């Protein structure tokens, strides 16, 4: 049976001699990540989960990066440098409007041929950069619901490109989503067509996610696709065996920031080679054994 | 007249406009990465200065449904440009971003990220937004009164610039307390390689011209008026820049131009005619006339004699007001259409074919190079933004035929001077003023 090994990276920053206090958990330098891209893609790592809180940065150091680059853009930058690895952004759900999130994530999915995922953090964005007022988990759930509707707001075949009739779009296959929650509202449709995966894969700790991410190894609920989130330590091999025995679909190995990150990436790559199934040429959903979701608006015509 | 010897040349990849020959057999998409890669590789082979992408935050919609005759369904500009930064080394990467629909620290962070990813090639076309159909797509609504939009934009640009400049050896907290924006934050990205990504702007009103004169490195202009009108616009922007205490040579006016180039002049004219025919489909012609006339024209034969139908001017006014380019007064627009039809004996479609295509330079390489020289030497502009209607192949002849001709004449670079867009623009401003 296949087993998924994901690599979790903290924020990506740039080489900078900084000694500023921060809170985003530290960063690895951009140059280090780019050096890793080709190797990563030839490895058994199935997906890369890149965090970026959007807040003030953690201290930089001799071999670490300072700052917190936008993860959607960094992942898009990796698209031409990789072929198979899944590209997942881990961001606070309430950092930007759902409309922007839907368009950015859909774009990453189009560019990468269906390799995009989103890990909305239920934890709040730093208060001074949160756009949508008081953050909280209810708001995160609303945001996810709105984003999913926006992904569906174009039916798969909305771009008809009817040369004879002069119609590029079939307007009946575009839909207002008219989402109105307690915190968020958005009319739609999106400006970007439905992503190749239908909906990019959503990761998270709660039942609304497509892939459940648990802290440490826990027995998976029936029918759930579970990744056990583990820090890269001396015990990683043993923990991966436990996760496999417990019925997890895979693990998400967190490299952590700070000195020695490159060494921990090596160890994660070795663990992937020992335990993981290399991703195939399909979408991230294919890699994870997830079906392509039906469109919420199809048949609404 | 201060004239530049070598043009700045940008290229636009259209993302949602009537101005696209998507019905052409060689047309690609407006979202697919391989099409964009082909386009930027061509642009970089031709040593062009930058790629330019527009944005929209809503789909076009009419009372009878979504606009369906034009291309739509674009990528997020900064996400696309971040991918393209991996396959280019010198091409500037300019995104249109509204000061109304993006939170300032998010926009600052994303542009700074692109600048780091590209090694100093990011640019921002600063647009204000007044038409508020897009407002319904955002929880916050983001309504800025029309009369305040340039004051809001100036405050916004200042706030973003302060965030970009807030790192030295460590970040300094930034507090913004203006009439339109209030926030305090510590910016998360060390200062961008260009410190301030290149600023572009496209204002036409006096307030817009003042904004450009104070803040912009590049001004995107409409070319339709020809070298005299664009030259007057450029002189005005330069004068305003000087009054604002800037060296006017650091503000470059770039009209959009549809370059249609052929091996021969006749081939170029044929390609231009063919693409114009494709753009003015019968369906598009009917919809364009319905917009100007303000009424349903389902029964009109767009290929027959020009119909004698009265417009509903009040209804047309609300539709035309949404246009960014073109005649906004429906009575004048109707009169122009009727005059064209009467003068040439044209059908609706023939009128639309004329009205719906914009400023173009059409010819063989020598003719197009002559025309570029004529504009530059008259001080009418500092270069052009190529706006090909055929994507992704519409830059091929410009870079393969016209660029070498300009190079032979000493009127275009033969290698990139600097990988940084800002350094290249500043270098060319200095070279000109010598």
Write up what this structure looks like.
The complex is a heterodimer of chains A (301) and B (434). Chain A is α/β, with parallel strands linked by helices and 301 residues long. Chain A is 27% helix and 22% strand. Chain A is built from 7 helices and 15 strands. In chain A, helix 3 links the parallel strand 6 and strand 7 (116-121). The N and C termini of chain A lie far apart (41 Å). In chain B, strands 1-2-5-6-9-10-11-13 form an 8-stranded parallel beta barrel, surrounded by 8 helices. Chain B is built from 14 helices and 13 strands. In chain B, helix 5 packs across helix 6, helix 8 (282-293) crosses helix 11 and helix 12 crosses helix 13. The longest helix of chain B has 18 residues, at 226-243. At the A-B interface, helix 2, helix 3, strand 9 and strand 11 of A face strand 4, helix 2, helix 3, strand 8 and helix 8 of B.
Characteristic terms for this protein:
heterodimer, A: 301 residues, 8-stranded parallel beta barrel, 7 helices, 15 strands, 22% strand, B: 434 residues, 13 strands, globular
Task: Write a concise synopsis of the structure shown.
Chain A has 301 residues and is of the alpha/beta class. Chain A has helices spanning 30-41, 71-78, 98-111, 137-152, 236-246, 261-275, 284-288, and strands at 4-9, 11-15, 27-29, 45-51, 65-66, 86-92, 116-121, 159-162, 167-169, 179-180, 185-186, 201-204, 211-215, 226-231, 250-254.
């Amino acid at each position: 049976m296949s087993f998924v090994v994901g690599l979790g990276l903290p924020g990506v920053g740039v080489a900078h001699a900084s000694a500023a206090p921060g809170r985003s958990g530290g960063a690895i330098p951009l140059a280090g990540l780019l050096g890793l891209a080709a190797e990563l893609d030839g490895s058994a790592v199935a997906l890369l989960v890149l965090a970026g809180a959007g807040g003030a940065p953690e201290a930089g150091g001799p071999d670490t990066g300072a700052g917190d680059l936008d993860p959607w853009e960094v992942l898009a930058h990796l698209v031409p440098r990789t072929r198979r690895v899944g590209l997942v952004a881990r961001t606070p759900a309430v950092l930007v409007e759902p409309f922007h999130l839907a368009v950015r994530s859909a774009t990453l999915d189009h560019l990468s041929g269906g390799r995009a995922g989103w890990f909305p953090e239920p934890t709040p964005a730093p208060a001074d950069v949160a756009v949508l007022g008081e953050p909280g988990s209810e708001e995160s759930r609303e945001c996810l619901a709105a984003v999913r509707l926006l992904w569906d707001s174009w039916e798969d075949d909305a771009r008809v490109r009817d040369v004879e009739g002069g119609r590029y779009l079939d307007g009946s296959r575009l839909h207002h989503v008219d989402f109105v929650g307690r915190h968020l509202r958005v009319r739609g449709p999106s400006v970007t067509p439905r992503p190749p995966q239908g909906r990019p894969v959503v990761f998270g700790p709660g039942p609304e996610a497509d892939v459940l991410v648990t802290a440490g190894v826990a027995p998976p609920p029936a029918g759930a696709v579970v990744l056990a989130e583990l820090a890269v330590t001396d015990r990683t091999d043993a923990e991966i065996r436990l996760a496999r025995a417990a019925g997890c679909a895979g693990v998400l190995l967190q490299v952590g920031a700070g000195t020695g990150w490159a060494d921990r990436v090596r160890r994660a790559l070795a663990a992937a080679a020992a335990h993981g199934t290399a991703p195939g040429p399909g979408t991230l959903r294919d890699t994870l054994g997830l079906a392509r979701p039906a469109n919420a608006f199809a048949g609404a015509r | 007249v201060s004239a530049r010897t070598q043009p700045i040349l940008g290229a636009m990849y259209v993302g949602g406009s009537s101005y696209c020959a998507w019905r052409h057999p060689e047309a690609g998409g407006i979202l697919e990465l391989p099409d964009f890669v082909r386009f930027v590789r061509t642009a970089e082979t031709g040593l062009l200065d930058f790629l330019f992408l527009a944005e929209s935050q809503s789909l076009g919609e009419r009372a009878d449904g979504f606009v369906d005759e034009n291309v739509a369904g674009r990528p997020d500009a900064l996400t696309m440009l971040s991918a393209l930064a991996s396959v280019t080394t010198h091409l500037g990467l300019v995104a249109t971003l509204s000061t109304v629909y993006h939170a300032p620290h998010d926009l600052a962070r994303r542009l700074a990220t692109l600048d780091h990813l590209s090694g100093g090639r990011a640019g921002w076309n600063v647009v204000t937004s007044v038409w508020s159909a897009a407002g319904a797509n955002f929880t916050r609504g983001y309504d800025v009164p029309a009369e305040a939009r340039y004051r809001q934009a100036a405050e916004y640009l200042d706030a973003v610039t302060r965030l970009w400049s807030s790192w030295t050896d460590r970040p300094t907290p930034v507090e913004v307390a203006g009439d339109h924006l209030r926030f305090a934050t510590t910016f998360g990205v060390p200062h961008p390689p260009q410190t301030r990504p290149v600023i572009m702007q496209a204002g036409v009103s006096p307030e817009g011209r003042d904004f450009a004169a104070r803040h912009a490195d590049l001004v995107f202009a409409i070319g339709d008026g020809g070298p005299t009108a664009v030259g007057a616009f450029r002189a005005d922007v330069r004068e305003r820049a000087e009054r604002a205490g800037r060296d006017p040579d650091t503000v470059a006016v770039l009209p959009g131009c549809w370059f249609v180039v052929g091996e021969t002049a006749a081939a170029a004219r044929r390609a231009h005619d063919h693409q114009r025919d494709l753009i003015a489909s019968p369906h598009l012609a009917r919809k364009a006339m319905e917009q100007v006339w303000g009424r349903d024209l389902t029964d009109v034969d767009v290929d027959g004699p020009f119909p004698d139908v009265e417009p509903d001017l009040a209804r047309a006014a609300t539709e035309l007001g949404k246009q960014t380019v073109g005649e906004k007064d429906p009575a004048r627009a109707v009169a122009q259409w009727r005059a064209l039809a009467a003068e040439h004996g044209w059908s609706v479609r023939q009128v639309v074919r004329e009205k719906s295509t914009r400023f173009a330079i059409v010819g063989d390489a020598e003719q197009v190079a002559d025309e570029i020289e004529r504009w530059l030497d008259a001080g009418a502009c500092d270069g052009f933004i190529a706006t090909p209607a055929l994507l992704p192949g519409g830059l091929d002849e410009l870079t393969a035929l016209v660029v070498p001709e300009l190079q032979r004449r000493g009127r275009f670079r033969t290698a990139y001077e600097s990988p940084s867009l800002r350094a290249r623009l500043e270098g060319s401003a200095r070279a000109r003023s010598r």
